[in-house]
Amino acid sequence: MWRDFTVDHAGVRIAARDYGGRGRDAVFIHGGPGQNLATWDHFIPLMDADIHAIALDMRGNGASSDADDYSYEALASDIHAVVEHCDLVAPLVVGHSWGGQLAVCYASRHTCGGVVGIDGWITDVSTELGDDVWRSIEESYAEDPFLRFVGTADELAHVLREVQRLYGDSAVAVAGRQFVECDDGLYRWRRSVPELVAIQRTIDREGVVLKTDLYASIQCPVLLIGGEHSPGDRDPRLGPWGFSRDATVPIAERFPNVQCVWWPCGHDIPHEMPRQLAQTLKDFATALP
User: Fold this and answer.
1) Among 49, 79, 245, 251, who pairs with 21 as Cys (CB 3.0-4.6 Å)?
2) What pTM did the predictor assign?
3) Are 243 and 267 in contact (CB under 8 A)?
């Protein structure tokens, strides 16, 4: 059974979950923003406790508190606060999507045993998203029933039961962690559409200045796992999210500690190929120095 805890760091409360397990310490970072640590609940047990797994809600997500600073430096410092709180030494750092970028960024600043980016990492494809893309994002958010929901605890429970019926336990765990009770006693998605877009714009601006020179500061093995049918591979113009094959292969050619592989799936590898990913992580962790 897991153990939940919080870490107070630089005025931010970081919520984290220790899943237990033996062997190499590993920190798991969710995608998003708009996701949270519950995205790993279904996956961690597949590793049969062969890895000591800890996951966290990044600031502004899940049960972690809001913040004024969403820079990659601040986000990396949150990860390190959890690492230090748990007395982890050279942990394996695993991130999916945006979390993969954060894992690479963290490893460029702190000592790690290994890094795994799951369909998300830093490349030199760094064109900012255009206004037309942002308008499309805002329109899709405005129509999202979760983001528009306002209701009582019973009404929220009804919605989450429907999510569970349609998408399973893992989806309802993630969704439920994003709702908060407000002063009027009603529940809302923890971010309004303008707030969510503002944070994502900040992250986009931050992401475009990150370059592959960061890998020169990473001394540990790095494994990048891409989905052959992921949007990031089909469209290298996705700004800091442009982790296409063409943008990634040169990284492995330039840095001998970086390996990239491509699997026959889409972006959500932890859900699409969970058992293969679990075995790959266990094998990677076992082979680390």
Assistant:
1) 49
2) 0.94
3) no
